[in-house]
Design goal:
Blueprint (H helix, E strand, L loop, with lengths): L12 H21 L3 H22 L3 H19 L32 H18 L11 H26 L26
Helix pairs in contact: 2-4, 3-4, 3-5
């Protein structure tokens, strides 16, 4: 079977061509959206509101929502965690500073912001599509799922915050840092006699 790699006359060729074109176009717009962080997150917020309204209007699909919540919690932990966890891996090179005398190393996320956004948006879209199939509407007592998810969220965030405190890192930066040239130990005014 030499030359059986791709036959343009086969019935699957138009579908393969369409799939390839769609994939390239989708990737093009995805790449163009990268620098527009605020607009991307606003779009995801709109998607989340649409999903919540759909679940509220049909009064069902709570198991899908619970699974979505667990997945989003898992993504959040990846977003807040350092790429190299000092508890799990001993690195010769880059790691978080554990003492004040250690060299400053920037915080690098395990899950970058763009992948975090993309995964959340994709999960919301898939969950929304699943709400159109009644087979996924499993009857459950939703307050139990909500309470269990809240307890899981609180315990997980407590553990993550304790990890941040122990290894002295903050996963967020607010704007560009400015240095005024003064050392932090210098006195703020007056002369020393």
């Amino acid at each position: 079977m030499e030359g059986a790699a791709f036959d343009p006359a086969s019935p699957a060729a138009p579908f393969a061509q369409w799939k390839n074109d769609f994939s390239r176009t989708f990737q093009y717009y995805l790449d163009r959206s990268t620098p527009h962080t605020t607009e991307r997150w606003l779009g995801t917020l709109v998607t989340a509101v649409i999903y919540v309204l759909r679940v509220y209007s049909v009064k069902g699909f709570y198991v899908i929502s619970y699974g979505l919540g667990i997945y989003l919690l898992n993504l959040l932990i990846g977003f807040l965690s350092p790429k190299v966890d000092p508890e799990l891996e001993v690195m010769d090179g880059a790691s978080l500073p554990t003492k004040d005398s250690d060299e400053f190393k920037p915080f690098i996320r395990r899950l970058p912001e763009f992948k975090f956004w993309y995964s959340i948006t994709k999960a919301l879209c898939v969950s929304f599509l699943l709400t159109f199939f009644s087979v996924f509407d499993v009857p459950v007592f939703w307050p139990i799922l909500l309470c269990y998810w809240i307890v899981l969220f609180v315990l997980t965030m407590k553990r993550q915050i304790m990890h941040m405190i122990k290894y002295k890192y903050i996963p967020f930066s607010f704007g560009k840092q400015r240095y005024d040239g003064k050392s932090p130990t210098a006195s703020s005014g007056g002369t020393m006699d």
